[in-house]
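[Automated response] Your request has been received and processed.

Submitted sequence:
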Amino acid sequence: MIEKFKQILDRIEVVRGEVAVFALLKMDEFVDKWTVVFCASWATDVNRAEVFEMIRLKIIEILTPEEVGEIARIAIYPKTEHFIQELMRYKSGDTFENAKINGNTVHYANIIKSKNAV
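Generated structure:
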């Protein structure tokens, strides 16, 4: 499924521009589903619903219905969000388990893209 999310990222960047953070996280201890975390400078509060819909449509276009069913939510954050700043410590392609990030327990993470990782 990670390769398919790389395709989704590529298609989004071709149409809209560079993405700062694109990651899949499992954060819910009761539901074994993914949270898609997204951050781009062009994804602002003004157009957040439009960006959400674009991501949702790309997911539906590329993933199978079973894979879509593994996604719990799509979260769009500004780059200034502390949670995003913490995720940017990781490099593109990194995975990790059972980490505390900004008070949230991330049970499993796959960082598809992290720009300007510190």
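Summary generated for your ticket: DSSP finds four helices and five strands in the chain. The two ends are 27 Å apart (CA to CA).
If you did not submit this request, please reply to this message.
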